[in-house]
Design brief:
Layout (H helix, E strand, L loop, with lengths): L2 E7 L7 H12 L4 E5 L10 H5 L5 H11 L3 E6 L8 H10 L13 E6 L7 H13 L11 E2 L15 H25 L2
Parallel strand pairs: 1-2, 1-3, 3-4, 4-5
C-alpha cells in the first residue's frame, strides 16, 4: 500500500534550502510513500474567534481537509530563534483546531531540520517534537536528521549533489516508511 505523506516546509522563501531538501526527498522516496508538499505560507494567522463564529477562512478549511487526507506528515524545517518558523507554528495551530477536531491526531510524523549552520537546526527539531507530543503525532525517533551546511548540498538548479546526504535521506525515508506501517498497525488503521 502506498502511504500519502504530507510534507510541511517550514520556510516560505523562494530559494529555501528546506524546500530544496523536501524536493530532494520526494525524488528519493521509496515506492511505498507518496510525498506531497502541503503549502502553508498563505494560511491566515490562527484566531480562535473565527472558528468560534463558524467563519474559518477558506484557506484553513482547505488546509485541514488536505491534512486530514494524508496518512502521515513530514516536517522539513529551518530554525528561527531556537524554534520553528512562524508559518510552521501557525500551520500547526490551524490544523489542531477547532478544539477536539485536530487534523494531526494519530498521524505518524518525522522531522528533518535543515540549516546552513553546523548544528542542522537542532533546536527547531527538538522544539517541534514537543508540540507533536501534544498533538498526538507519534514521531520517528531514529534515525534523526539534522542537516547542517546545507548551502553546499545543492547545485545551481537546486538538485542534491552530496552522496552522503542522499544516502542519509534514503535511509531516513525507508525508516519512516517502516514507522508509518508500525504506527498504523498499532492504531488499527
Amino acid at each position: 500500500m502506498v502511504r500519502r505523506v504530507g510534507v510541511l516546509v517550514g520556510s516560505p522563501r523562494k530559494a529555501s534550502l528546506n524546500r530544496k531538501m523536501a524536493l530532494a526527498m520526494a525524488a528519493l522516496q521509496p515506492a511505498s510513500l507518496a510525498l506531497e508538499i502541503i503549502e502553508i505560507a498563505r494560511l491566515p494567522l490562527y484566531n480562535q474567534d473565527l472558528d468560534d463564529a463558524d467563519s474559518a477562512p477558506p484557506e484553513w478549511v482547505s488546509f485541514r481537509e488536505t491534512l486530514s487526507g494524508v496518512d502521515a506528515v513530514l516536517f522539513v524545517t529551518p530554525e528561527h530563534n531556537r524554534s520553528v518558523p512562524a508559518p510552521l507554528k501557525n500551520a500547526i495551530d490551524v490544523g489542531s483546531r477547532p478544539y477536539g477536531k485536530s487534523a494531526w491526531n494519530g498521524k505518524p510524523g518525522a522531522i528533518v531540520s535543515v540549516s546552513p549552520g553546523a548544528l542542522g537546526a537542532f533546536g527547531a527539531n527538538h522544539h517541534l517534537r514537543q508540540s507533536l507530543v501534544f498533538l498526538n503525532v507519534p514521531c520517528l525517533q531514529q534515525p534523526e536528521a539534522y542537516i547542517g551546511g546545507a548551502t553546499k548540498l545543492f547545485d545551481s538548479d537546486g538538485k542534491l549533489i552530496n552522496d552522503t546526504t542522499r544516502d542519509l535521506l534514503s535511509g531516513f525515508l525507508t525508516a519512516f516508511a517502516g514507522w508509518i506501517e508500525a504506527t498504523r498497525l498499532k492504531s488499527g488503521s
